[in-house]
Amino acid sequence: MHNIIAFQGHAGAYSDLACRAVFPTWQTLPCESFEDVFAAVHAGKASRAMIPVENSTAGRVADIHHLIPDGGLHIVAEHYQPVEHHLLGLPGSSLANIHTVHSHEQALSQCRQFLRQNNITAVAKRDTAGAAAALKSLNNPGIAAIASRLAGEMYGLESLAGNIADQHGNTTRFVIMATAPHLPEITTPSITTLIFRVRSVPAALYKALGGFATNGINISKLESYIIDNKFTAAQFYADIEGHPHDSAFCRALEELGFFADEIRMLGTYPAHPFRLG
Length: 277
Prior knowledge:
With 277 residues, the chain is of the alpha/beta class.
């Protein structure tokens, strides 16, 4: 399992690019689903998992905040991967001939304006690189895929247009996960990710988070999502700028415990330099 990192998707996916950027000498392991990625690490087939969390254009990756808490792994690092979408076609095809494009729904949403301007119909597929890999078998010069340049090189496709995302600086944030936590030194600028629930009483969330404000600790991300079919119970996912061994963080966490239930740490890891950019 040493020097192997698992990701969801086909070879050449953006997650594959992220794996190669962080671990350039490691072998990457494509997996069919996110559940398969977690399972590969638990089974010892890989020592790390690369999991996309959110994109600067399309927002949160669907279902990931349910999968991460239930996956049984710990967040040990984060990575911000620039995303440059390419319109990939069969050799000899051209942008003018393309009427349909296949890709992951996230990639399609990130290129919505480009597709509308070129009157191209979007068809959602399971992942970007998989859509690129399937083009050869379709053998239709009017169908293209949106994927990475790496995917185009791997599957013998041509880039008909590059950098076609609607917003420049398109970036995906990933978390890197392992079976055991890897707590950084307390002097290292760190992010702690945790989940919690608040009791159903007035101002519970306000009171639960008050300790972070009074102790000068920034919450860089806070999201809620429903966890029951009656829409009465919500779970919160938070990224907090701090280290659990820091005294101020400990005081804030103690106050959170007065008003929140089922607090669970998902990982403490070094803050990526991208945050300081």
